[in-house]
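Teaching note: in complex prediction, the entire set of molecules is handled at once rather than each chain in isolation. The prompt given to students was simply: 'Predict the structure of this complex.' The entities are:
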Amino acid sequence: MIGFISYLVNGISLGSVYAIIALGYTMVYGIAKMLNFAHGDVIMIGAFVVFSTVSGMGLPPVIGILISVVVCTVLGMLIERIAYKPLRHASKLAVLITAIGVSYFLQNVALLIYGANTKSFTSVVTMEPIRLADGALVISGETIVTVIACIIIMIGLSAFIKYSKSGRAMLAVSEDSGAAQLMGVNVNSTIALTFAIGSALAAIAGVLLCSSYPSLTPYTGSMPGIKAFVAAVFGGIGSIPGAFIGGILLGVIEILGRAYISSQLSDAIVFAVLIVVLLVKPTGILGKQIQEKV
Amino acid sequence: MKKALSLLLVGAMTLSLAACGSSSSDSAATDSTTAEESTTSESTDAASEESTGATFKIGGIGPLTGSAAVYGTAVQNGAQIAIDEINAAGGINGYQVEFNFQDDENDAERSVNAYNTLKDWGMQVLMGTVTSTPCVAVVENTQADNMFQITPSGTAVECIQYPNAYRMCFSDPNQGTESAKYIGENGLAQTIAVIYDSSDVYSSGIYEAFAEEAANQGLEIVSAEAFTADNNTDFSVQVQKAKDAGAELLFMPFYYTEASLVLAECNSQGYEPIFFGCDGMDGILAVENFDTTLAEDLMYLAPFVASSEDEQVQSFVSAYEAAYGETPNQFAADAYDSIYVIKAALEGANATPDMSVSDLCDAMTAAMAEVTYSGVTGKDITWGEDGEPNKAPLVVQIQDGVAVEL
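The expected output is the structure of the full assembly:
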């Protein structure tokens, strides 16, 4: 029983990281209608910035995270401005390929700067782990911080979209960008804002990911990025609560599958569940039913 | 804009050429790209060709980019040191040696492409490939061409399944067996948990041999959990299972990158078994920013200890440090020895560069039976017909943040 709870806690912790990353995917998809496959690599850049500032230059973690958020926000807006905006009216496929290109570009830039050697990331969380049931159940400080951060971000983001003017502009653009433009919403700046928020979240996700799993290479972001994309699809891409639920579920299924079915097949189980969900509900758990216009 | 860019590129190229002209040890700067690398080695060799006429052309293949780049770079650097030493001492049988190292990104298909590129260049002997999976693909080609091949670090059994192929390091099964023997004979533990990478032939190969020998030694494997290359950051489940099974020793047949995560996870779960690993652990202390106290008391099989007082090791380590500014790992050491083994085989065969690839291979394989080599990864190493080296394994333990021979 304690084993099960422990697995569950680990699953929620992993899922929370997926959820934060998935929020970035889902926002960009909902508003710009594009899959930003470079998102995972922005996470990696965010983690490297913290690594350089905190472990390298000895700045306090809070300052390091703030710098990382700023760097990633600027980076996200730059990527959008340089790589995606000129392709706004090009085919979906062209944008997708560009995103993959940006992803490789970021990986290789990091490879050039930091080299291929694995760096050990010092956790920014200093909280002591909670030990329950005579040490049989250990909940690490990272887990607690990750889960809380994920919930705060989720609630904050939902409130922002619902109540703020720019948030409502985002909603309008995601409904119908043409109509939103006619009503006086600046579509370009709304999309830029989306990328800024998504990338700021990526910086936070990067720090939390590397605090929980303290290894950092230029490829750190790619696999969690793909998993988070799956989580976003799982929960219904374009939906913010969907990304949250999808992320948590994915993490829990992955860990429980690894614990009780097979440690080798955990990915296979995750993707099998995804296939089943998509067969039953093609738009994901919370996805909107969109009538295909002919 | 375009003009400025092309000027910049021309400038960079001239600089790299100038750098290699001045000193040969600079020719393999750690981060230089493959393209640059081939230009540099060719230009160094252009000079030597004038003086002696013919040269031996040794090719190398390994990952210089991608996630395994650290191994390929180490092999390239280690081999370059041996090549420079040999050339400075008058070459092999009086002929200078050319070395050309190509990137394969740890990908089997690219590795075969790299092999073909090297053949076009005129390679006569192959030192490679660095990693197992590409090596298994390339050995099919060297066998078809009957080219002499020695892999510095390809540990899978199939890497050297043909008579033309040799190995410098231990094979996977060999490491698994030796580890189990060591644990059993020294009575380190009775109950053992294993975590291994099921997507990697190196890791699963060691695990299988380990499990077999552990049974002979009367050791009990209480938990065996796998992970895969796509799933190698979260070890909470595997560690917890080992902990719940009450294993006294955790056997970790995988690379230090994952090991640093497993050690951190054990620490956060408050699990303190004896940690035992294989040669992939070599390098864990060099992980940037790694809390070395986590690795305290970790034991592993290592073919090479940079802190060893052996004269050959010391001269290699100081040459490597002078050239690349870091301590060589076992990959660099294996590569260094591999080049000298090629030299020994060429000398034993009295080979000349005008021999065909196939004749060279036949002469060298015949000579290998007689070769007894002492280098930085072992003393009095001999090779059997199967291409496996006979050498004693070394067990090291991390004590106060330093790897010490046991």
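Point out the following to students. Residues 173-302 of chain B form a domain with the Rossmann fold fold (CATH 3.40.50.2300). The interface with chain A takes residues 30-31, 65-70, 73, 198, 225-228, 230-231, 233-234, 236-238, 240-241, 244, 256-257, 260-261, 264, 268-270, 286-291 of chain B (CB under 8 Å).
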